[in-house]
Amino acid sequence: MGNFDPQRVRTCKTTGLNVCLDAQFFIKANAVFAVVFLLVGAIAAILLALTRWPAVHLLNDVWYYRILTLHGLNMLIFWILFMEVAILYFACTSLLNSRLAAPKVAWASFLMMLIGAIMVDVIILMGKGDVLMTSYVPLRGHPLFYLGIILVAVGTLTAVILFFATIYIARRDKTYEGSMPLVTFGALAAAIIATVTLLHGAVVMIPTFTWSLGLTPTPDAGWYRLIWWGLGHMSQQVNVCAMVAVWYFLATLTTGAKPVNETVSRVAFVLYILFINLASAHHLLVDPGLGASWKIWNTSYAMYLAVLASLIHGFTIPASIEVIQRVKGFTRGIFNWLTSAPWSDPGFSSVVLSMIIFGFIGGITGVTIGTEQINIIAHNTLRVPGHFHATVVGGTTLAFMGLAYYVVPLIFQREFFMKWLARIQPYIFAGGITLMSIGMSFAGSNGVPRRHWDVEFTGAGIGAGFDAGAHFMLGLMGIGGTIAFIGMLIFILLTVATVFFGRSNAETGMVSWQSADRMKMISDAAGKEAEFEVEKHKTPGTLVLVSVLLVSFVVYYFANWKALAEVWWVR
Amino acid sequence: MSIQAPAKGWFGPPVGAEKLWIGVALIWCIIMSLAMPYYHFKGKQNSTGESYAVEPARFVDRVNRFVETNQVGEEVVTVSGIEKKIPIVEGVPGGDVYLLGRTWEWYPILKLKKGQTYRVHISSADLQHGFSLLPMNMNFQILPGYDHVLTLTPTSSGEFQIICNEFCGIGHHIMTGKIIVE
After folding, report:
1. Which of A43, A551, A552, B134 is most buried by a 10 A CB count?
2. Contact A447 B137 (CB under 8 A)
3. Where does residue A358 rank: exposed (0-12), middle (13-18), buried (19+ CB within 10 A)?
4. Cβ atoms within 10 Å of A111's Cβ, excluding its own
5. pLDDT in tens, A184-239
6. Tell me, what's the pLDDT at A536?
7. End-to-end CA gap in chain B
8. CA angle at A260 for the pair A258 and A262, rounded to the nearest 5°
9. The pLDDT of residue A438
């Protein structure tokens, strides 16, 4: 069946999957550096939170903007991309029972990404790249800053191409039968979006690089924004896609859930591919040069079909968990299946918390502030980072943390130290991020700008400032950020210590996060086909949950239209 | 299992609770899609993006001419210990008003009348800036090379601060301005 070199494969004692050792090496390498960049970004994060909390105001102005540049690139680009490459390599090898197509290409990709990322970080810390992550022209950074970003982008694109090539050889060698697994399908959707994203990056970054060298004229500011967001926003949609694939993956590993309807879940991924790129327009809704019809069509992602995709996944995943829990016998009432879920398995709690934060905070705020007219009372305020910290940090990063609680025992084959601490870590992190995002969002509703060192405007000719309510919200942001940082630090220390010094489980297989009874329930449930067929279209608990989501959504959405209707008239 | 190839014949339409939810979610998506064109025609706050290409130097000339012809006063302020005079300039209702963003000020101070409509031209002399009107919390992107025209009607009176909410270098956080509405 498989197409492995017999010397370069092992069979996982826990899952029974075949693991290509070349793929395993690059999964490890990319995951390790992902965590290194996560650490850099996290240290930057706490410095920023303690600066924007007016009562602390830690950094000076120069270092605030410098560290902000460092934070954005390490968190949004480096941590996420390295982790995503690891996920891609896993999804196209072990899940398809295939070897990695070309390990040498993986080396090229890895080295380009690593050199590029280090180059960018060094340039920033030398003070030669104080242009923030977006590097809006005509703000000018050092040429090596742009070159570093280009290297990371090309390196990632190389890994994406290797992913496609591996799927090709797996199909050619018939290593699996029929359609690819849903998780690989989700990773494939992410890879397709990533390709389009990285091409936008090349289109915008190459002329900016040659301009920084003095060879070509200044790119037009409006053009730069349009194309840059084809990179900047779409790369976050790659995260969404990868995160949803991880949700499905961990729901299966931790509860035995299987998709209720493969067609629905797959169509939702296709909707992402078709429509999510239009969301780049969300950053340009109050820009000059773009008309109302362009803004309205693009902002709606063509009638919100990409939002529909997220609403579908937000139903299908809890529904699949509810169904399998009911099959196991947790049938009492509407929520017995949920209260009896494996809440002390960090892989499970991470996914559920990630879904709640992503949906209730990130999703609702994102669609609302990304509405053409409502953006007038949101653009470039703290509402924007309030939104995307809920999606990318509370959503994607938390889901990836949950993934790490399985990657380390299964791929690195090490058992975690201090498991009790790992079990509570997702709750600490999720709590901190929730407080922080809420603080940011409501400070932003008061007009507090994002990317701003001093909300007291000390030294400005004409004074300005904010009321006590906004300061309270900034305090909440600072406290939430501190708690999230503690949660992040626990995760990094546990993971790093385990990877290097943890007890090997290569002989025994992974020690489950859950009790033997629960694991037996999972394996028993897999055989109960008849019960599954009975339960699969009856998910009352999930219907209640998504109804609560929809009501919150409607209330927040119309409250914002009302707030908009109260400001000055403008056309 | 989402980590295994699905069994043959997996393709099929949604049924039961899933079908219900997809229907409800789709209706909500359509409502949100229609809300924007509706508000575009019926609402009073829209970002139409009306703008014209302009060389930054030419735009600075227009602002200076506007200040020369329409100045009604000045305000003395202190920026980093140095005294500076900022002109207060009154717009003609229904007419053109100019506002310049540059590192690091909004120039000049504008004086408008409540309930009157003005065509406010805003552009940048150098970098990208963010026009943010407080405590109203109205925000527009300002780009060099683009004369961004806001057809603006103040509906409340008093003194309003303009801050910059697009990063424009080290003095970004002291970039402020003012609109006085009578």
Report:
1. B134
2. yes
3. buried
4. 13
5. 999 999 999 999 999 999 999 999 999 999 999 999 999 999 999 999 888 888 88
6. 85
7. 67
8. 90
9. 97
> Any residues with CB less than 8 A from the CB of A516 and at least 6 apart, and which?
none
**B51-181: CATH homologous superfamily?**
Cupredoxins -  blue copper proteins (2.60.40.420)
Q: How many Cβ atoms from other residues are within 10 Å of residue A483's Cβ?
A: 20
Are the beta carbons of A95 and B28 separated by less than 8 Å? no
Give A284→chain B minimum CA distance, Å. 8
- Report whether A64 contacts A450 (CB < 8 A): no
Distance from CA of A383 to the nearest CA of B (A): 11
pLDDT tens digits for range A82-97: 999 999 999 999 999 9
Number of Cα atoms under 13 Å in the Cβ half of residue B61:
5
Separation of alpha carbons A210 and A351, rounded Å: 43
Report the phi/psi class of residue B124: left, alpha or beta, with left for phi > 0 and alpha for psi in -120 to 50: beta
Query: Cα(B89)–Cα(A410) distance, rounded to whole angstroms?
Result: 69
Inter-residue contact B163 to A444 (CB < 8 Å)? no
Which residues in chain A have their CB less than 8 angstroms from residue B145's CB?
Answer: 220-222
ipTM: 0.96
Looking at the DSSP bridge assignments, the partners of residue B112 are: B181
Pick the CATH number of A20-455+466-565 from 1.20.210.10, 3.30.365.10, 3.40.50.2000, 2.170.270.10: 1.20.210.10
B18, A264 in Cβ contact below 8 A?
yes
Cα A95 to Cα A87: distance, rounded to the nearest angstrom? 11
User: How far away is chain A from the Cα of B59, in angstroms, using its nearest Cα?
Assistant: 15
Q: In terms of Cα–Cα distance, which of A361, A535, A346 is closest to A423?
A: A346
A144-148, A335-339, A532-536, B54-58 — which is least confidently predicted?
A532-536
Residues of B in contact with A291 (CB under 8 A): 48-49
Contacts of B12 (CB under 8 A, 6+ apart): A261, A263
B96 to chain A, closest Cα gap in Å: 14
Q: CA geometry: angle at A262 spanning A260 and A264, to 5°?
A: 90
Q: Which residues pair with B122 in a beta bridge?
A: B99, B148
Q: Between chains, do A263 and B146 touch, taking CB under 8 Å as contact?
A: no
Residue type, B21: W
Taking CB atoms and an 8 Å limit, are A570 and B138 in contact across chains?
A: yes
Q: Number of CB pairs < 8 Å for A and B? A: 325
HEC assignment per residue over A41-57:
HHHHHHHHHHHHCCCCC
Which residues from chain B sit within 8 angstroms of residue A54, using beta carbons?
none
| Burial grade of A262 (CB within 10 A; 0-12, 13-18, 19 or more) | buried
Q: Which amino acid is at A389?
A: H
Q: Which of B52, B75, B137 to mutate to test the interface with A (most CBs of A within 10 A)?
A: B137
Of A461, A543, A571, the CB nearest to B17: A543
In sequence order, which residues have a C-beta less than 8 Å from that of residue B132 and are 6 or more positions away?
A380, A381, A447, A449, B138, B139, B162, B163, B164, B165
